[in-house]
Target: Carbohydrate sulfotransferase
Amino acid sequence: MAVRLRRNLFVSLIILLILLAMYMVALYQDVEAVRFLPEVDKTAGIAKKELKIEKDDHLLERIKKRQAERQQRLRDYCEKHASSRNRSDRYDHPIIVNDEYKVIFCYIPKVACSQWKRVFLALDNRTDVDDLHKNKHYKFLLYDYSDEDIKVRLKSYFKFLFVREPLERLLSAYNNKFVNNKWSWRRIQRYKTKILERYKQDEPSSYSSDQYLTFKKFIYYVSDVGFDRDAHWRSYGPICHPCDIKYDFIGHFEDMTEEAPYILRQTGMDRAVTFPPFLTHNTTSQLLKSYAPIPKEKIAQLGKAFEEDFEMFNYDFPGPLSDLMHD
Model:
């Protein structure tokens, strides 16, 4: 009897150890899967929209129709201006490449680029970087390849970019860099010194006109001489070469909540990552309040400076600022 009892206890112990081992293996796999995500919960942010995309045929049709219209708009623009532009096969801007998923992404600063960078870093199992805007953290950028390898990838990989209403992007760049101080002190001071010296007489009644880089002075600078001086407010063409690279998907920031999970599903990246949450765009009232002090002629200069962005990607000018341009 005692022997049988000891045998049963031994068998029970073996079974318990096996079950414990299975649990630990499963737990380890879950930890690895979570670690592989771009530092967000799997149900956070845009990831919730993925469930809707799988079931909503109307949403899929809307995305496809919208995409066809954007592609046609871009083709028409490129054909119309073919004789006046120089074709480029130099890609100095760091365009991100992932060879495993055969994806190429041209990021544009201030168009949710931080969220997309987290996605691509997570695909390379890099979620602990000190500064995601440093190029050294990315396994492959397009200019790292030979000319022949670039051609092969541009021909066969899924290529996409996202754009944003240009005037809204300008406000976002100003707030991020000069109000929230997301640049280094040295870089901010370099711009402040240049802009304040040039436009110190344009706000004589402002109590902070000599020390503070106002949005008005920033707009004066961008509209006059500086619209192409920094990638955060540079025109889209020199960054992503949309007339030279045939992008498979042209995304709009305004439709990111629908289009980001769609791209992840189309490329298979959704098996490894979800899209992190991001801040929504400024409202029309916020834009009107910020641009209200800007003279109409300066807003018109902005329209001219970013004319190709408005036309290429079907944004109306003055768009959200129409009320400010009326007499």
